[in-house]
Automatic annotation (TrEMBL):
Record keywords: Methyltransferase, Transferase
InterPro entries hit by this protein: SAM-dependent_MTases_sf
Transmembrane residue ranges: none
Stretch list, region Disordered: 1-22
Entries under Gene3D superfamilies matching the protein: Vaccinia Virus protein VP39 (3.40.50.150)
Coiled coil: none
Signal peptide extent: none
Molecular function per GO: methyltransferase activity
Full protein name: SAM-dependent methyltransferase
GO biological process, one term: methylation
Length: 285
């Protein structure tokens, strides 16, 4: 993401108007976020997430992964910063009127850093997740490392910490779309470029954060859209194209993106891009 899945970065041209931010948040939550559901479910199944789980979700966005864990009985806390429109959607998802008071007490969101989720009355977290895959934007590994350093002191001894990343470019059709659509940003010293995913990226980040790698897996997460318009809206909602838009304009990036998507358009008009994501399970010493 926020490929957040794909990452969602603030625009390099400055803060977007509130109306634009709300629209992009809706596009993310209604179109793009669901692309990583197979990843969420695979991790939760492997770790047997349930009523005994106390989960801390880093950069939780609009909260779909938190909702999935809560539906399995887990107590969930999501933290995010600088994305108020997404966090507002997460609160709506996690605190609907139809849920019982007991359930509401087991789901919360925090506008801020992982440290802001600390609560003297709450037991340590047994699971920390970072479902926003790295490998799409410059500096995303460093940002993830900083989040982990702030989050792991809140986790119990032996707690699982899940890191995620894009798979090899040859197994991720969306990689070529991101690369082609980011070309307008090249004059700005390569802004928007992504480095090829390396096999041990996640392990290196985990070790730097003082974590012990304890297993990994790969999950197929195809990006499927009803039509090219939905694909463009979904991909733009990730924020990965903000640098290109700031360098040229929205119309130019829209044109480049549609051209890049053309090989993945099927006869019925839908857009389908196979992708593989990798996750690492690490443990808190």
């Amino acid at each position: 993401m926020t490929p957040t899945l794909l990452r969602q970065h603030p625009s390099h041209a400055g803060p977007a108007p509130r109306a634009d931010g709300d629209a992009r948040a809706r596009d993310w939550s209604e179109i793009q976020e669901r692309m990583l559901v197979p990843l969420h479910e695979s991790v939760y199944e492997r770790l047997e997430v349930g009523p005994a789980t106390r989960l801390l979700g880093l950069r939780c966005g609009s909260g779909l992964a938190l909702l999935t864990a809560a539906s399995r009985g887990a107590a969930v806390t999501g933290v995010d910063s600088a994305r108020p429109e997404l966090l507002a959607l997460a609160r709506q998802r996690l605190l609907p009127d139809a849920w019982s008071a007991r359930t509401r007490a087991r789901a919360r969101t925090v506008d801020g850093s992982p440290g802001d989720a600390a609560d003297a009355e709450t037991p340590p977290f047994t699971l920390v997740t970072a479902f926003e895959p790295i490998g799409c934007a410059t500096g995303d590994a460093e940002r993830l490392g900083a989040l982990l350093s702030a989050a792991t002191p809140l986790a119990a001894h032996g707690a699982a910490v899940v890191l995620t990343g894009w798979g090899p470019p040859e197994r991720c059709a969306t990689s070529s779309v991101l690369r082609m659509a980011a070309k307008p940003a090249d004059p700005l010293r390569g802004a928007g470029r992504r480095h090829p995913a390396r096999r041990d990226d996640l392990e290196e980040i985990a070790r730097r954060a003082g974590l012990r790698p304890a297993g990994s897996g790969r999950v197929a997460c195809p990006f499927g859209y009803a039509d090219p318009d939905s694909a463009v809206r979904g991909l733009l909602s990730t924020g990965l194209f903000d640098a290109a838009i700031a360098t040229t304009d929205r119309a130019q990036v829209d044109k480049e993106l549609r051209e890049a998507l053309h090989p993945y358009r099927r006869q019925d008009g839908t857009v389908w891009m196979p992708n593989v994501f990798r996750y690492l399970i690490a443990r808190v010493p």
